[in-house]
Amino acid sequence: MTTTHADPAAPPTRPARARARRSARTGGLPAVLVLPALAGLAFLVVPLAGLVIEAPWGTLLDRLAEPAVFQALRLSLIAASAATVVCLVCGVPLAWLLARSDLPGVRFLRALVTVPLVLPPVVGGVALLLVLGRNGVIGQYLETWFGFSLPFTTAGVIVAEAFVAMPFLVIAVDGALRGADRRYEEAAATLGASRWLTFRRVTLPLIAPGIAAGSVLCWARALGEFGATITFAGNFPGETQTMPLAVYLALETDPEAAIVLSLVLFAVSVIVLASLRDKWISPTAT
Amino acid sequence: MPQARSVGTRLIVLAATLVVTLAGCGGNPQSAPAPEQPGGGGVSGQITVFAAASLTEAFTEIGRAFDEANPGAEVRFNFAGSSTLAQQISQGAPADVFASASPKQLQTVVDAGAAGEPTVFVENLLQIAVPPGNPAGVTDLAAFGKPELTIALCAEQVPCGAAALEALQAAGVTSQPDTLEQDVKAVLTKVMLGEADAGLVYRTDVMSAGGGVEGIDFPEAQQAVNEYPIVTLTEAPNAAGAQAFVDYVRSEDGLAVLQRYGFVTDVG
Description:
The structure holds 2 protein chains of 2 kinds. By secondary structure, chain A is mainly alpha-helical. Chain A has helices spanning 14-26, 31-54, 60-64, 67-100, 106-113, 115-118, 121-132, 139-146, 154-179, 182-190, 195-224, 227-232, 243-253, 255-280. Chain A has a single domain (56-280), classed as MetI-like fold. Helices cover 38% and strands 19% of the residues of chain B.
């Protein structure tokens, strides 16, 4: 894992990596990789294509004009973006702690942080209720001291989404930090920079692509969040009803409306993700 | 530490509810192969029953009794929301019996030609559920119109929400809900945890929550009676078993179990 410090001119340069990529391309792709890759692609894309094919195109515009659709979409975008900000503010320092500290038990902490990934979101929602609900371990004090209760509020939606999405950011940033070349940080330290200054001026720029990738993943996960949100924050139009919740309820009575809502969510996420990827996390832009 | 203990008690009740709910949500019936016992009495083989989530506890018990009475037979359940089940059956899921929490959901299956003539076997009545001790002092449906209370209802797209709407209309109350939940168990959870001051659920749900919530009857519940129809499916892989199970549910033994879980079995 540790890089040798003998040859400071050694870090693989960008042109070298680009050359390697080019040669791989010209060498032809082995079928043993291409076939499963295509199968994987089809597996991911075909269900979405089914959504597009089954969509009620004739009445699409009328259905999109319904104010409820816009309301849910707006709430989804606001909540997912706010949750991503929360994750950035807490998640980046947490990742730094996991990657850089020599605390005992840091491996255990790292495993703990990823628990929300494997936890069924509904269980996560119940856990949040037990802690932050009106009668929860912490929530009861929020209620008595500030007269403030998170469930059934937009703030509750943001909390639920942040809970589920933060591991994505932490894992990405943790990976970026551990892969980053520490010699730059050490050089900054030897030149007298404080740890905070080093973090801001050296570490952060180094891991910016990792943070961007993590944010995009985190935002996407928050946008699609269903289980924790409906369990912790409930479902009320304009207040806590995000697009996935609207889709689920529409499915009960009006599957066509559910498809339209899904398409909207699908389209918005593809547009946002595609534009962000090009801007921030393409390998050539730093 | 009375607070801690009450949270602990709630946790236990909640965990139990979750287990039941999760079991109900598992879309796939267990695929254990049915041991074909030669010489078993009456019907034999697997009988796959698709039943509304609210029937989970009662039908599980009935199924166990049925298996005991028919050693060659094995009843398997798929518990989920009635509309989900109706969709699964319409998409060709191999089911023998369908018991729905609403005639409307079952009608879609009948209309698709997948089921015969359904019969109503039980009814369910709405009840006001409040947290233990009724901290908000709820006595009747009028509480649902008070904006200062935290109110949980089912969304009107799901059967319990439609019934709640009817009852509230009959009482002349414009409800001020804070959340419209995706199913009745979600309303129950919110009340059980004390997050909601009151919710409208079924008597059977209050019963299944044990001491987790208190139930309050109200007269307008009679205006929104929820009928549960049951039917054998035309494509049933085990038609004889399907009929035997439906007969057993409607027998004195079967109805006694259902009554114990809070269902109204006197349906004329």
